[in-house]
RNA sequence: GGGCCAUUAGCUCAGUCGGUAGAGCACCUGACUUUUAAUCAGGGUGUCGCUGGUUCGAGUCCAGCAUGGCUCACCA
């Protein structure tokens, strides 16, 4: 649906689209410089520019680069003028390098041009590499090209941009002036790549399943709602790819994975962003024990590939990601930490009174089932204490509607979650492939939904239909990429590993 | 959603008891051909988040609102 009447008020704007009254002095001066540049016949916004080297390469290979001629480009980050000669640092994607420009070398006209440039301007330079008296590797400029005029002043060179709100809202500025931020996102990119390499090498096939779904399934969460105009169709942004990936197992793909976004219409916190990245994989003829082995191997090898070590420091705590992680059934973990033995507590009623008797401070709902209460006790008493990587096994069936029941205890499932630093990093199970049980589980969820639980699963008839054709037994695994990257980059907030986190509009 | 905190120049931050709005960086003018948080001389560039209130007088006190941060709740 195209909009035909876009509001355009160019009359009140000056070139650049900013209204004149919004311009402070610093921006006004830069616009004047821009106009002056044009008047003198220089184009402030250049074109293709071929570079021979990066800043990093020159710095790292000074021995072979000394006195070599180089062409590079970057943003001016600092300037030190001394009459007929100037020093400056320019920054490209690899780092900063000093340049030295003398009137004698480039001629008075070019030198004059350079001396009027601002911090933030993007230029190309060519010249030869040398070391200054103080030992800094520097490019002695022989000529320069204007590539982009910057019309806004950058934050201060010494303190950088600290205002958290501005850093998230204008990430591009954050990235320009705070080099450590860039490093976080490089690590994020390498992490995702490492996952792909690992899984591809294991024979998994990367697939893409719908982001917009008729029935949002595969997780317990409130979805975002959207609408398709020509079909006049209510659609949901997916909360998980799970049910579609398992349809692929039915279709005959044995090993599939997807790394992509999920959307959940819930609270925002240091650990939750409405859209986040999930890796989900399914392996036919495997079970949750295989998934534990795979999780360990995958995360430790990804850490090794990205950081060169399986020993990480997170917020002052040393975490050891080398394989051999603790595997403990939920019942046992809860018993150890709370004293409550849910293997002898058999009913919801007994569970309610046991919690009360133990004096555990929990908000219990009368409708809570045995499994709900077990999970709440776990969340409260156990989860925060799981600092080193720990697999918690055998979740109650009530909160695991897609997992296979344990053969020796139908109240529990072959499901585990991985916790590191008190946070859930992975969730996995032996997939439920009995269509009749699955339909019954969905029906239970639908009841919960009718009772007002907006997060309960919906009935997905087509998924049942798929299971009825026969799905091979399989292990499935989901890993929250953002939270894992937080661990690998030692960042406290999920917003620090998301380039453009969701922010309320300012006005 | 609740609680606490923050919001002052482009950026980082001061601002006392309610009495004419401050610093550093950046910027402007001038000097300076190996500087590096360059230096030296001069220049303050502002809707003190917004709206009300109290007061002779509000950046400062009060109320409401907005945005953000932390936290609790919610939530994988």
Number of DSSP-assigned strands: 20
Number of helices: 16
What is the helical fraction, as a range of percent?
25-40%
Give me the CATH architecture of the largest domain, please. 2-Layer Sandwich
Distance between the termini: 27 Å
Task: Calculate Rg over CA atoms.
Answer: 29 Å
* Widest β-sheet, arrangement of strands: 6-10-11-20-19-18-15-14
Structure keywords:
single chain; 507 residues; BirA Bifunctional Protein, domain 2; five-stranded mixed β-barrel; 16 helices; 34% helix; RNA-binding
Provide a descriptive summary of the structure in words.
There is one protein chain. The protein folds into two domains: 155 residues, Nucleic acid-binding proteins (OB fold (Dihydrolipoamide Acetyltransferase, E2P), Beta Barrel), CATH 2.40.50; 257 residues, BirA Bifunctional Protein, domain 2 (2-Layer Sandwich), CATH 3.30.930.10. It is α+β, with helices and mostly antiparallel strands and 507 residues long. Helix content is 34%, strand content 25%. It binds one RNA strand of 76 nucleotides through α1, β1, β2, β3 and α6.
């Amino acid at each position: 649906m195209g909009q035909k009447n876009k509001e355009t008020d160019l009359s009140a704007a000056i070139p650049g689209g900013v209204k004149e009254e919004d311009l402070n002095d610093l921006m006004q001066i830069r616009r004047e410089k821009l106009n002056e540049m044009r008047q003198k016949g220089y184009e402030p916004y250049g074109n293709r520019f071929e570079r021979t080297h990066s800043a990093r390469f020159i710095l790292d290979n000074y021995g072979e680069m000394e006195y070599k001629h180089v062409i590079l480009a970057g943003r001016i980050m600092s300037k030190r003028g001394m009459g007929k000669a100037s020093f400056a640092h320019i920054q490209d994607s690899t780092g900063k390098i000093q340049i030295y420009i003398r009137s004698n070398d480039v001629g008075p006209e070019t030198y004059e041009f350079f001396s009027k440039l601002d911090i933030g301007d993007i230029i190309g330079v060519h010249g030869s590499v040398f070391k200054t008296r103080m030992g800094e590797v520097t490019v002695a400029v022989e000529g320069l090209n204007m590539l982009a005029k910057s019309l806004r002043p950058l934050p201060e060179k010494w303190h950088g941009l600290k205002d958290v709100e501005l850093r998230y809202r204008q990430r591009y500025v954050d990235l320009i002036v705070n080099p450590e931020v860039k490093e976080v996102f490089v690590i994020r990119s390498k992490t995702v790549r490492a996952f792909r390499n690992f899984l591809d090498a294991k024979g998994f096939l990367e697939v893409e399943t719908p982001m917009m779904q008729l029935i949002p399934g595969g997780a317990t969460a409130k979805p975002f709602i959207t609408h398709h105009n020509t079909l006049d169709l209510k659609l949901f942004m997916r909360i998980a790819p799970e049910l579609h990936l398992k349809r692929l197992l039915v279709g005959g793909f044995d090993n599939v994975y997807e790394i992509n976004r999920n959307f959940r219409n819930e609270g925002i916190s240091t650990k939750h962003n409405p859209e986040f990245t999930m890796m989900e994989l399914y392996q036919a003829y495997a079970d949750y024990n295989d998934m534990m082995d795979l999780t360990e191997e995958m995360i430790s090898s990804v850490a090794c590939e990205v950081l060169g070590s399986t020993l990480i420091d997170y917020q002052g705590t040393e975490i050891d990601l080398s394989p051999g992680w603790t595997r403990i059934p939920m019942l046992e973990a809860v018993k150890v930490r709370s004293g409550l033995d849910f293997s002898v507590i058999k009913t919801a009623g007994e569970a309610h009174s046991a919690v009360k008797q133990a004096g555990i401070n929990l908000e219990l709902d009368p409708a809570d089932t045995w499994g709900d209460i077990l999970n709440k006790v776990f969340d409260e008493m156990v989860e925060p204490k799981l600092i080193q990587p720990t697999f918690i096994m055998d979740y109650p069936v009530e909160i695991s509607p897609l997992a296979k029941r344990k053969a020796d205890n139908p109240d529990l499932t072959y499901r585990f979650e991985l916790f590191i630093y008190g946070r859930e990093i992975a969730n996995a199970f032996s997939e439920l492939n009995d269509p009749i049980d699955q339909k019954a589980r969905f029906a239970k969820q639908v009841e919960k939904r009718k009772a007002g639980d907006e997060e309960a699963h919906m009935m997905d008839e087509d998924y049942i239909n798929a299971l009825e054709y026969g799905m091979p037994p399989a292990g499935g695994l989901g890993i929250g990429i953002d939270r894992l990257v937080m661990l690998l980059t030692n960042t406290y907030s999920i917003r620090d590993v998301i380039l453009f986190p969701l922010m309320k509009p300012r006005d």
